[in-house]
């Protein structure tokens, strides 16, 4: 235990199977496309959604297909990969919305929140500093594409915790088009928010989120910022605004996600509430091996887990790569 209590100002939540129960729906849609790719490459292997989820949970579709290329030794050019990534995004969003019919009415259950998370998010949003301002800045940091994450938290009524109010003169969004990233919405995607699409376990999306949120905290605006041309200049410019990782806490349910957050220097809470009871022990070990500081089985435990992190709790085992 540390002698001095850490001051946590910023909470960074993974989305899929941490805030919303979306992984099963998403991987069902992914399996159809993955099998189409394997068949087109003359490979006999086929996956179910559950098998893909077991092997690639925490990674986005681009990362998963890249790994399948390495496993089964086939080639795919960037344009073809991009086309599959777009098809997957459309299919997953449709699944999250409950496979709506022509009238827009869901034919299946729409995506649901993880048990207990809504009450906890409201409690965190209501927490105030002595001056009346919000105690925590809350954000979503995901491997999944921004439109998918946005739709997930919107359908579950969680978007309110991760956005600032729309300007009164803002144009009305087209319900038939994919949501576009806005600086007022604190949702960050490894797939779409950065110059180069990546996936967890790469920590880049967490570093990106801390820089953007630091910019917001400094009461600046993305509007009017002239971004440097080279990647090195770009990184150096944004690094000036980064939050201190030690004032942040991440919540992750997967090895890939926990590895990314820990590599970014962020104290991390491992979450197993979305797993079947018979898998919890195994997943707990995986998350601890990835370097999480404390474990959480249900969202009702979050306040206690956050207090442990603030008190200096840390995983004494070195993270396994």
Automatic annotation (TrEMBL):
<dbReference type="InterPro" id="IPR051600">
    <property type="entry name" value="Beta-PGM-like"/>
</dbReference>
<keyword id="KW-0119">Carbohydrate metabolism</keyword>
<feature type="compositionally biased region" description="Basic and acidic residues">
    <location>
        <begin position="163"/>
        <end position="172"/>
    </location>
</feature>
<protein>
    <submittedName>
        <fullName>HAD-like protein</fullName>
    </submittedName>
</protein>
<dbReference type="InterPro" id="IPR036412">
    <property type="entry name" value="HAD-like_sf"/>
</dbReference>
<dbReference type="GO" id="GO:0046872">
    <property type="term" value="F:metal ion binding"/>
</dbReference>
<keyword id="KW-0460">Magnesium</keyword>
<feature type="region of interest" description="Disordered">
    <location>
        <begin position="162"/>
        <end position="183"/>
    </location>
</feature>
<dbReference type="InterPro" id="IPR023198">
    <property type="entry name" value="PGP-like_dom2"/>
</dbReference>
<keyword id="KW-0479">Metal-binding</keyword>
<dbReference type="InterPro" id="IPR023214">
    <property type="entry name" value="HAD_sf"/>
</dbReference>
<dbReference type="GO" id="GO:0003824">
    <property type="term" value="F:catalytic activity"/>
</dbReference>
